[in-house]
Amino acid sequence: xxxxxxxxxxxxxxxxxxxxxxxxxxxxxxxxxxxxxxxxxxxxxxxxxxxxxxxxxxxxxxxxxxxxxxxxxxxxxxxxxxxxxxxxxxxxxxxxxxxxxxxxxxxxxxxxxxxxxxxxxxxxxxxxxxxxxxxxxxxxxxxxxxxxxxxxxxxxxxxxxxxxxxxxxxxxxxxxxxxxxxxxxxxxxxxxxxxxxxxxxxxxxxxxxxxxxxxxxxxxxxxxxxxxxxxxxxxxxxxxxxxxxxxxxxxxxxxxxxxxxxxxxxxxxxxxxxxxxxxxxxxxxxxxxxxxxxxxxxxxxxxxxxxxxxxxxxxxxxxxxxxxxxxxxxxxxxxxxxxxxxxxxxxxxxxxxxxxxxxxxxxxxxxxxxxxxxxxxx
Length: 378
Description:
This protein is α+β, with helices and mostly antiparallel strands and about 375 residues long. The chain is about 65% helix and about 10% strand. It has 10 helices and 5 strands; from the N terminus they run ααααααααβαββαββ. It has helices spanning about 10-35, 45-65, 75-95, 105-115, 120-140, 145-215, 220-250, 255-270, 285-305, 345-355, and strands at about 275-280, 315-320, 325-330, 360-365, 370-375. Strand 2 (about 315-320) and strand 3 (about 325-330) form a beta hairpin. Helix 9 packs antiparallel against helix 10 (about 345-355). The longest helix has about 70 residues, at about 145-215.
């Protein structure tokens, strides 16, 4: 995932500031070039001014475009072009010190280079540029332009400070992302603990009941029922643990695939159908959104099995433009409740998970049955 080093407000301010500077600089440059001495011409020094200005623009524009991504294999070529544009731009200084200030465009190239290279190389490049400008002024016989030198010094220091600020913001965002991942992994680890604790304790209860029935020559049908419940709990706990471990490793499957598996498990375990409907174009979700959808569907179907035996269920997953909606409904129980089974974690926990990522969870009766509706941004 890529993180922008600037907020929306900062990017807007930078865009406006850069636009104003570019417009002002372009107008001032053209005005000075046309009225400067020597003026652009097709011969002599005027031709040199035209060629050096043209070369500066071509090299600068190409250098800024080439190698913009940090991981681009052509970044070295872009940096080389920027250095070349600085050379052609600064060559205008002794030729036409009052010829429009085309050499000022070397500042743009210098700024771009200082934002790309390490700080120690940037400091050396800025120092070398200042020395070069002073030497060119002496060689031209009109002495160094201290205002121009001060501008290069200020630009170097400002670019280095700006680069360090960007690096610090990027490091902060990487740390925040790492903390979020660690927090999610810690939460999943707690879920695994809850899964195993609930599943194993419930299995012990059922197996102990079966043992007592068999030891006292009790009803073998009841004992078999206890053993089957323990087996189902073990199978359910193993499956939930497998999903949680996959999430912990970052192997988060598509929610629609997991929901299809949950629906099949529901049908096998209850003998009642569970219809699944997916609308919209399926797409990859964030780990938090995908996990919220899967856990909510799992909890809702578990509650149907626990509290509404004999009910038919329906799961609807909707992919919207900016969100994902999950709706789980049932037709209401037709059989007596035989006790609590399953490894649910409570709709309260599901609601908290949804709210943490800016989503909502609504629950309540619908006809003779019950409805669970989740909406999360995605």
